[in-house]
Amino acid sequence: MWVGGVTGDAGVPHPTISEGRTPVPVPNPHATAEQVAAARHDPKLANVLYHDWEAGSYDDKWSISYDERCITYAADRFRAIAGDADWPYGRALELGCGTGFFLLNLMQAGLAAWGSVTDLSPGMVQAALRNAERLDLGDGRVDGRVADAERIPYDDDSFDVVVGHAVLHHIPDVEAALREVLRVLRPGGRFVFAGEPTRIGDRYARRLGSLTWKAVTTVTRLPGLRSWRRPQVELDESSRAAALEAVVDQHVFDPDDLAAIARRAGAADVRVATEEFTAAMLGWPVRTFEAAVPTGRLGARWAMFAYHGWQRLSWLDRHVLSRVVPRGWFYNALITGTA
């Protein structure tokens, strides 16, 4: 999730349209079988195809919003690893912006008045710019570019802070991307990345997700439960997307190794923390279940159960289990450092 030449390198031609202040290529949401086959051997092409594919439904899939719930979540993630001594910053950049979840919510929380969103997926950049416009952040305050994190298309010393959420594990060369981050940061500027999967956390999360998917898609074949089953064409589409996701996810991280990568890139004041242990064990089955049943089948009571359950287990993880469970067992890694 991460201008020049990158979409061409990925082999996906996109005619250009004007979106907001910045020309953004038109996404290709319907990958051909040939493109999917090629993407199995090209992680950047896989990222373009997969995230273009997901752009229209991504916010719903991951329960992303731009209200107090996610504003608080984003700000808490930032402060958990970086504190707020330098808050607010001047200009902010997001790598792998997706639909804009992290930066747009951080801007609403007061992190920065001006921001730039970048992603390798044209569909995601478009979605982020639309969300910025809807949130009244599009009046010259947010620009967007299709960009490769290993070759960030901004000048040296352009930003006071660079952020990203669940992006580093998609980038083939993380150290090269962090060197680029340090290049575009002003001296003393800070980067914050959150939502990166740990090696152990990814193992149990994928296992729980796989078991949940198999259980739901099997049980909903039974008479009387078929109304809980998504149409087969949608399940087949999910399976095709999952095949790309296996290529898109390039890395899982050991916390100490992630810190070492940042230091090799030249970062100072590097810190890594982890979070979500029992919360991840609830969250992944919940999200998988939601993806397996028809849209709208689950109501507000389910949403409240999922959200409050995650909140309570996150509290347990943060205040109790973090004292006794090795940090590498937690699912999410957060990292910060300075230029």
Automatic annotation (TrEMBL):
The keyword Ribosomal protein does not apply. The keyword Methyltransferase applies. It comes from the Bacteria. Residues 1-27 are annotated as: Disordered. CDD domains: AdoMet_MTases. Residues 93-193 form the Methyltransferase type domain. Signal peptide: none annotated. One of its GO terms (biological process) is methylation. One of its GO terms (molecular function) is S-adenosylmethionine-dependent methyltransferase activity. Pfam families: Methyltransf_11 (PF08241). Keywords: Methyltransferase, Transferase. InterPro entries: Methyltransf_11, SAM-dependent_MTases_sf. PANTHER family: 2-METHOXY-6-POLYPRENYL-1,4-BENZOQUINOL METHYLASE, MITOCHONDRIAL (PTHR43591:SF24), METHYLTRANSFERASE (PTHR43591). This is Methyltransferase type 11. It comes from Pseudonocardia asaccharolytica DSM 44247 = NBRC 16224.
